[in-house]
Amino acid sequence: ELENLSDAPFSGDEENGGSEERKTEINGNWIPVTSITEAKINAKAKRRLRKNSSRDSGRGDSVSENGETLKIGVVVPTSPKGKLLDRRSRSGKGRGLPKKGGAGGKGVWGTPGQVYDVEEVDIKDPNYDDDQENCIYETVVLPLDERAFEKTLTPIIQEYFEHGDTNEVSEMLKDLNLGEMKYSVPVLAVSLALEGKASHREMTSKLISDLCGTVVSKTDVEKSFDRLLKELPELVLDSPKAPQV
């Protein structure tokens, strides 16, 4: 690049004298040739830097002033944003450990393995009630309505026709809150037996006999057969021999 400056004004001073520094005139100012050379080198380096930057822009990379490639979206640690996201102690005294051993955040129950003692009742508490200590909590089973009754007891009776254990049926019925639907147990059993075999009708007679006095009363059995006689015209549609049976 020094050869390109050979045609500049006063370029022959070096040949004549040899000791003077070569200079050139730019905008009326005399500037040493070495300064121009350094400026051209810096300009060439910047052009190369811009060229590499535009070439890598499609790959999501950028070039810093020092020529180091940086990924877009990566926060430089020296930037103010990087300092805000830094979780280290700003005072420089912390060790980077979680506060309170990990039990100081919102919604945290405590450190792992921590066991809490039983909280004692404060008698002086304005919300304290003497009756709350004498409360007995029991599981309440709602009574079955007509639709839920048939849906629940039908599979129980059909399974009884398979195993023939009246005690199992009795235990299952005791766990249910039959309420006013107790008299419907013999009604449903007889209705299913009419559609089945002769052995099913015999098992139904035994079932009603064993349930009487434990699950249903004699009054419930009487009420159930009264209802069967009233519903006999409807039973004949499904079982024509229902009156004789």
End-to-end C-alpha gap? 124 Å
Radius of gyration over alpha carbons?
50 Å
DSSP strand tally: 4
Q: Might you state the CATH topology name of the domain at 146-244?
A: Serine Threonine Protein Phosphatase 5, Tetratricopeptide repeat
Low-confidence region ranges = 1-21
What general outline do the C-alpha atoms trace?
Answer: elongated
SSE series:
HEEHEEHHHHHHH
Task: Give the topology, please.
Blueprint: H1 13-16, E1 23-26, E2 29-32, H2 33-56, E3 61-63, E4 69-71, H3 80-85, H4 146-163, H5 166-174, H6 184-194, H7 198-211, H8 218-230, H9 232-238
Antiparallel strand pairs: 1-2, 3-4
What does this structure look like?
- The N and C termini lie far apart (124 Å).
- The protein is elongated and about 135 Å long.
- Strands 1-2 form a two-stranded antiparallel sheet. It has a two-stranded antiparallel sheet with strand order 3-4.
- It has 9 helices and 4 strands.
- By secondary structure, the protein is mainly α.
- 43% of the residues lie in helices and 6% in strands.
- The relative contact order is 0.05.
- The protein has a domain at 146-244: Serine Threonine Protein Phosphatase 5, Tetratricopeptide repeat, CATH 1.25.40.180.
- α4 (146-163) packs antiparallel against α5, α4 crosses α6 (184-194) and α6 (184-194) packs antiparallel against α7.
- β3 (61-63) and β4 (69-71) form a beta hairpin.
Any key phrases for this structure?
two-stranded antiparallel ribbon, mainly alpha, Serine Threonine Protein Phosphatase 5, Tetratricopeptide repeat
Short summary:
The protein is mainly α and 245 residues long.
